[in-house]
Design brief:
Chain A: GO terms for molecular function: electron transfer activity; heme binding; metal ion binding. Chain A is an alpha+beta fold. Chain A has 12 helices and 14 strands. In chain B, helix 2 (about 10-35) runs antiparallel to helix 3 (about 45-65), helix 6 packs across helix 8 (about 230-245) and helix 7 crosses helix 8. The chains are: A alpha+beta, B mainly alpha.
Chain lengths: ~525, ~260
């Protein structure tokens, strides 16, 4: 009898293994939050810097680096035109990630690290894919573009001591962030919206954007506490990001670094946005409503729209944070994203749009994620920041104005129609606070326009995609940041009947157990031994 | 005598299963993070977790039934106890936790949860007929012309395709993370190395809209380049693309 048992068990085992194999094979869609690169700090022993090594480096450079950094290292390679920031000009000392004093050249190890790691959010790829030897060789070659390297002044200046991260240290860091006027560039909440950056960018048209310090995944020189400490100490050459080596004592630089680390967040993304059911009869259009705190936020990464002309190669909005909630009649979305400016012009205005298919797909098939296609139309809820003629060319949208909400349908980039006034059912409001737009859009779950409007149902995965415009980046029309299809799910309330099921299950479990034990005790297994 | 040897066999098996659960839930994300050099822990997917647990339980049962003696020992734990007090405590714990566990399973299965979306697709559908006959004008040319077309093609590739497919053609461009259906990694031997030049020509010219529905065109960010790139430029890009990725196209069967 035991043998038969075993056969059955082995059979089950095999079925299990097969399922596992197929189960993993179907995971083709990746999760964005796990894919960002990191700054790798380990450096292997150096290769001797010989003329041979430089000559080998030249070959590698002219195979792998020249089309961005230019054949003469001037950062003007033929492919550079679709890039922001531009590739590094190696003939100048513009090196950003260094452990050496401001305006010194980096050490060989610094170069090795940045070449190995690449720079997140820019065109600069990671090169741990080529051998360590090749990396040393190519970096010896790029050093030949700039004479300053020959003067041998690349001396590491950053100390190694550290100060533990305590609440006091973070609080002191926050004070120093004010005292040292970091906020003039990085903004009060660290969103990269300080007045000085904005002036550099929009008034002098200089290609500098202060880092959004809340997005920990976009730090060029790494986001560990040691990396941030190093950046604050040494600064980034030829950018507004200066060195605080002299202006701040060593300990204070650690405090600031701890503060920066405390506001730098990881990207928390998901494929499904869960809309929370609320009991309230009224859903107020208010971004600061307490209820939003209970809805799970999902950060959705955006890319420049380069699918159809005109293409946006250099987007400035790279993520939107979304939450949703609904009651028995209405659904409401809160969309938040960082934007350094609130400057609206007639054509170039900040905006956001939420895209749904016109009806919930029954099969896998959906409309095309970028504005639909001829066999599947999409429904767009669009919000544009306030702008008014007669106020001059550029206005700042005040908090009292809610902006312009409209509902559209599209079948392609060119085939977009605004719905007639009688079927405009979306309402909303956007406010700009401390470098962040917060836009609420609301509609009833069902509408009369069943052809043009999505009709929401609970418990179904409803495709949703987002787009956003930054007026000061000259975004307009198809020049925008876009996302892939995600899903919104109107969570069903937990039905009361479930507790009855659970009770039945427990009783059944208990009775099976009792029966088994009673039987076992009546015929103890010894009997079986004698079989 | 048998009882003396391992009256706690059942408890050991249960402990082993709990250890497995703890490992999958807490340790393995860290282990995989280290193995794959990722900066984030890699949690075990829930379906896998379920199957590993089922396997674990089955393995435990298989072990307990390797000999009649073992099986008897295994069950003996449930018999009225005359042993140490710890045994009767554990017995009671086991009797209570079984029905509770059953109840919990039923609860977690029947709460309206987020079914994760199924998104299966075929990466390489059949090439449409009108593209079958085309020839890459650069592939059979002399070495010099070939080299020039590769250089030209690389520059075009870096300008137009790099944001998604990455400058190393490894699918790691700066925009790649934003498209859930990731831009293809051309270095992967399962992608462009398994198809002929014409196939790429079709994909580049027609992009996502050209795909049949079994390849989920609605999720693909692959642009159609027919309005922006001339045919020659596309062939050059193909030359440059294979060279950058370090792979060769599949050879066409010669029907002579």
């Amino acid at each position: 009898m035991i043998k038969a048992c075993k056969k059955v068990l082995v059979g089950f085992g095999l079925i299990g293994i097969c399922t596992i194999v197929f189960g993993t094979a179907s995971d083709v869609f990746a999760q964005a939050s796990h894919l960002f690169r990191t700054y790798k700090r380990e450096v292997p022993p150096k290769l001797p810097e010989t003329p041979d090594a430089v000559a080998e480096g030249k070959k590698i450079y002219e195979k792998r680096c020249w089309y961005c950094h230019g054949i003469e290292g001037k950062g003007d390679g033929p492919a550079a035109k679709t890039m922001f920031p531009k590739p590094r000009n190696f003939t100048r000392n513009e090196y950003k990630v260094r452990s050496t004093a401001f305006s010194s050249v980096p050490t060989d190890e610094d170069l090795f690290r940045i070449i190995t790691s690449g720079i997140e959010g820019t065109a600069m790829p990671f090169w741990y894919t080529i051998s360590e030897k090749e990396r040393w060789q190519v970096l010896y070659y790029i050093k030949t573009f700039n004479d300053q390297f020959r003067k041998n002044d690349a001396i590491k200046t950053v100390s190694v001591g550290s100060v533990a991260s305590t609440p006091e240290s973070v609080a002191r860091g926050q004070e120093l962030f004010k005292e040292m006027r970091c906020f003039e560039c990085h903004g009060e909440d660290g969103r990269g919206n300080g007045p000085l950056t904005v002036a550099l960018q929009s008034e002098w048209n200089l290609p500098y954007r202060a880092r959004d310090l809340t997005k920990g995944w976009l730090f060029k020189g790494g986001n560990t506490i040691e990396d941030i400490y190093r950046t604050v100490s040494t600064g980034f050459n030829e950018t507004p990001m200066g060195s605080y080596l002299e202006k701040l004592a060593d300990e204070d630089r650690w405090h600031v670094a701890h503060y920066v680390k405390s506001i730098a967040k990881d990207m928390v993304s998901d494929v499904v946005i869960k809309a929370r059911l609320v009991e309230d009869d009224q859903l107020p259009i208010d971004a600061s409503d307490d209820d939003w705190g209970k809805a799970t936020p999902v950060e959705i990464p955006l890319a420049g729209q380069i699918i159809a002309t005109p293409r946006l190669w250099t987007p400035s909005i790279d993520a939107i944070n979304v939450r949703a909630m609904y009651n028995k009649d209405e659904i409401m979305f809160l969309l938040e994203w960082d934007d350094a400016t609130n400057k609206q012009e007639e054509v170039f205005r900040d905006g956001v749009s939420v895209q749904f298919p016109t009806k919930i797909p029954e099969s896998l098939k959906k409309p095309y994620f970028a504005m639909g296609d001829s066999s599947g139309a999409v429904n767009l809820w669009s919000w544009k920041a306030y702008w008014h003629e007669g106020f001059g060319a550029i206005v700042e949208a005040p908090e009292t104005e809610s902006g312009e909400v409209s509902e559209l349908n599209a079948k392609s980039f060119k085939n977009v129609t605004t719905q007639p006034p009688e079927s405009q059912n979306v309402s909303g409001k956007g406010i700009y606070q401390n470098g962040r737009w917060k836009v609420v859009l609301k509609r009833s779950l069902k509408t009369d326009d069943v052809k043009g409007d999505i009709q929401f149902e609970t418990g179904k995965l409803i495709p949703v995609a987002l787009a956003a415009w930054d007026g000061s980046n000259s975004d307009t029309g198809a020049l925008k940041s876009v996302s892939a299809w995600y899903y919104v799910l109107l969570e069903k309330p937990v039905p009361k009947t479930i507790f009855a099921y659970v009770l039945v299950a427990i009783i059944m479990g208990a009775s099976v157990e009792l029966w088994f034990i009673a039987r076992l005790r009546r015929f103890p297994p010894k009997l079986e031994e004698n079989e | 005598m048998a009882k003396k040897r391992s009256a706690f066999l059942m408890i050991w098996v249960i402990l082993a299963v709990i250890c497995l659960f703890m490992f999958l839930k807490y340790a393995s994300p860290k282990v995989f993070q280290m193995l794959m050099a990722k900066s984030h822990p890699m949690p075990t997917p829930s379906t896998l977790m379920m199957w590993y647990m089922i396997m674990g339980v089955l393995a435990g049962l298989v072990y307990a039934t390797t000999s009649n003696q073992k099986f008897a020992d295994f069950l003996s734990f449930l018999l009225p106890s005359r042993g140490p007090i710890i045994k009767s405590l554990l017995q009671k714990l086991l009797f209570v936790s079984f029905p509770v566990l059953v109840g919990w399973f039923v609860y977690s299965w029947s709460i309206p949860g987020a079914a994760s979306p199924v998104e299966l697709r075929i990466q390489h559908p059949t090439l449409p007929q009108e593209f079958e006959k085309l020839e890459n004008p650069f592939r059979e040319k002399d070495a010099d012309t070939q080299r020039k077309s590769i250089e030209e093609g690389k520059i075009l590739f870096q300008t137009y395709c790099r944001p998604c497919h990455g400058s190393k053609a490894d699918g790691n461009g700066p925009f790649a993370n934003s498209f859930r259906l990731r831009p293809i990694n051309f270095q992967d031997p399962g992608t462009i190395a398994t198809v002929v030049d014409n196939y790429l020509f079709w994909r580049i010219k027609e992009g996502a809209p050209g795909l049949p529905s079994e390849s989920t065109p609605w999720d693909s960010a692959m642009p159609s380049w027919k309005d922006d790139l001339k045919d020659d430029e596309i062939w050059m890009i193909i030359m440059g693309e294979y060279d950058t990725a370090g792979v060769m196209p599949r050879q066409r069967e010669k029907l002579e």
